[in-house]
Design goal:
single chain, Rossmann fold, 14 strands
Amino acid sequence: MAAPSNSMSGSGPEQKARFASNTTSFQKKSRSNFISIPGTRPSVQNGQLIVSTGVTSLDYVIGGGLAVGTLLLIEEDKYDSYSRMLLKYFLAEGVVCGHSLYIASAREPPDEILQELPAPILDDIASPRSEEAQGKLGDPDGQDSMKIAWRYQNLPKVQTALASSSRFGHYYDVSKAMDTDMRQAAKCTSFYLPDEVTHSSAAESSQMNEGYRALLRSVQGAIHSQGFDGSTPQKSRNVLRIGLQSLGSALWGDDICCSESPGHAAGLTTFLYGLRALLRSSLSVAMVTVPAHLVQSRAIMERVTKLCDTAIALESFRGLDTEANPLYKDYHGLLQVKQIPHLNCLVCEVPDSKDLAFKLKRKQFTIERLHLPPDLSDTVSRLSKPDLAESAKLLSSGCGSSTPGKKHLDF
């Protein structure tokens, strides 16, 4: 009788080779395609490479940070103090992360803006003791916890501070200037309009004026010469942060702030269209401030907003009657999110609260949820006894109108 075949046995070399080839047919998907650049990370919502604006609460509001290749528009406040501060935060974050900078201004030399960058706080703001204290305050089972009604116990607590669970970006002290050695170590390209504009370019036929044409050529040259568009190989990849101050003002030669029917109505929009094309094809991100309260035509401002990826507006209380209002004593202005980009998804990341306010503390600029405290003072207006009597008389006459001649209701 023939011996049984050993085909089911695993001891043969052919069987082992076949088993090894079957086990390696499925490979684990790797995430090596993400670009590793200091100061960047992939977005949780859409996987886009993002950078921090320098203000952690602003990063939380716009969906985690600024996506590389996008444009952030900031509508300036009336006196251009807080929008200028956001621009300095944006540039300071680039210095700390080792990014390259590009600064353009028509009002002041870019070197003066660099000298006013806030100093970074390298240590953690929240210490373990403070976190432990906050945990005890938020513990409903603690011995000293406030006893509230059961119907309000499970409602979400009001949190004014805006912050994500994972820290991204750095903190800065606006009361101190950045160290000179750290500031000089950053690679920065400057564009000061009075020194850059030449009269020879005035004869060119374009919808953009002389200043915008020179600025767009300068930005394109900086992106190409430093290899941010991939034309020149870089030893280590980096991000270019572009900060443009007060575009659309008369200092740039634009007249959209001077007339409702300006001669260069499409100058700023044409420039933003070209700038956005440069950003899309390079490792760069831009922040642009525009004096929206001075633009005469609302249609032009709406087109400017649509050409930007992210748009926020700052409304300062300074010089207004709202500044003396005791309800807003803890804030310095309101912040409105006008536009958030749709990147690699059908819907955008909408902030959970639209009532936002900002305030400048002694050392830090923060954005919080607008939460008005209850008025518990003794000066609250109440209905007086004559008013209550008059209201009761009107109510009784209204109820008795259907049954005339009867003082009491019969049940």
